[in-house]
Amino acid sequence: MTTTQTERTEPSGETLQFMQRMWELVHALDVRSKRMVKAIGVTGPQRLVIRIIGQKPNQTASQIANTLGKHPSTLTGVLARLQERSMILREADAEDRRRARFTLTPAGKKIDKLQKGTVEAAVRRAMGRTSDAHVDAMRETLTILVEELERDD
């Protein structure tokens, strides 16, 4: 029996209940990402990077990281794995040879077009099941939560 099929115990208090849902979300993202590797050959984060490069080719690692709200060093491994697997091309910037720009290969473009079985598809379905106001409120709540988690106490 899965957790959804059994009676789940709720912790006491709104904060712990919210945290329980967050851990469920983290777990569900991880499970879907592992399924994606088996089905389409990339993880959820790797596909997100592919989608970002697909929307705007020739970006630098800094530009991609900025879109994700991450430090460029956190993308080094993701970009290297995608390059090793011939999903993206890394080319030296024409103006500054120290800087690299990224584009999709035909294999990367294939992954970029995929819909079924991805984290993105699940998010799109979930957003379709709720109102725009709820989506906006959730986006705001997540933004505030990230700010608080990154804050020095």
Describe the structure.
The chain is 61% helix and 8% strand. With 153 residues, it is mostly helical. The protein has two domains: 32-114, Orthogonal Bundle (Arc Repressor Mutant, subunit A), CATH 1.10.10.10; 118-153, no CATH class. A three-stranded antiparallel beta sheet has the order 1-3-2. β2 and β3 form a beta hairpin. α2 packs across α5 (106-113). The longest helix is centred in the first third of the chain and has 27 residues, at 14-40. It is globular. The model has no long low-confidence stretch (mean pLDDT 91).
Largest sheet: 3 strands, antiparallel
Computed CA radius of gyration, to the nearest angstrom: 18 Å
Count of domain modules: 2
Query: Helical element count?
Result: 7
The helix/strand series, from N terminus to C terminus, equals HHEHHEEHHH
Topology, please?
Blueprint: H1 14-40, H2 44-55, E1 59-60, H3 61-68, H4 76-84, E2 88-92, E3 100-104, H5 106-113, H6 119-128, H7 132-150
Antiparallel strand pairs: 1-3, 2-3
What characteristics describe this protein?
mainly alpha; Arc Repressor Mutant, subunit A; globular; 61% helix; 8% strand; 153 residues; 3 strands; three-stranded antiparallel beta sheet; 2 domains
